[in-house]
Amino acid sequence: MRIGMIGLGRMGGNMARRLRRGNVEVVAYNRSFDVTEALAQETGASAVREIKDLVAALPAPRIVWLMLPAGQATDDALAELIGLLSPGDLVVDGANAFYKDGMRREKELQARGLQFVDAGVSGGIWGLQNGYCIMFGGEKAAAERITPYIQVLAPTKDTGWHHCGPAGSGHFTKMIHNGIEYGMMQAFGEGFALLKSKSEFNLDIAAIAELWRHSSVVRSWLLDLTADALAQDQTLDNIEPFVPDSGEGRWTALESVEQGVPTPVMTMSLMMRFATQGKNDYPAKLIAMMRKGFGGHAVKAGGGK
Prior knowledge:
N-(1-d-carboxylethyl)-l-norvaline Dehydrogenase, domain 2; 13 helices; Rossmann fold; globular
């Protein structure tokens, strides 16, 4: 088994490592060659400096897996690859991409005789040890070709992976997965905030988080991570209350509007992330001024921002 990996960041690098642990030959490329070289020295992967070198190092029919940021970076790499690959080669897009991009990309690649799979990958930085949860889409023949590699990446040969359907379905499933993740994280944040605010009980919220990890209905990996964080510092005073959103939450909210399916929890969790990014400042200021206007309520002076 031999595969090309393009993009060796936090996810792609560890996926290449897991493939090597499974005795898969990996030809690796990263824009920064020092990253590629370090991975090669560590794992025995083959390091190349250019995408054209990666293609040349793979026997046809080739399999190339991209783990790049969604959008332009992936499009640019695909544009270069298309001119280098041969009919029958397979490209896997493992980014957190918009599912309609996957549907479009399959058509573009098929027009040149290439196969395409869109793969949603979950597991984060712990995937190297625990395996990755992979949801992927594409035609049956393409899915069957990539399955042996996915089985190496997954927790076990038979668990943690699923061929969801046609192209786009893998990234669609991952998009909804991340929307659910947004809601779960928001619920944990709100719940522990309420526990912390009940000063009369002086609750040990780290102990409660640890308690809930064992046989409670809300036990989960997210709760495990919460318990670990609170065990280090219950106040979180050194943490800036800023939460980015990486795209999937927005796409999930837009999809709910498009389909007419109510998703209040997932959508509100996205809105709460916007609020942490300073995007709630102006409306809050305007509301304060309206309250002053109709009721004479005091307005707290700001710092001139």
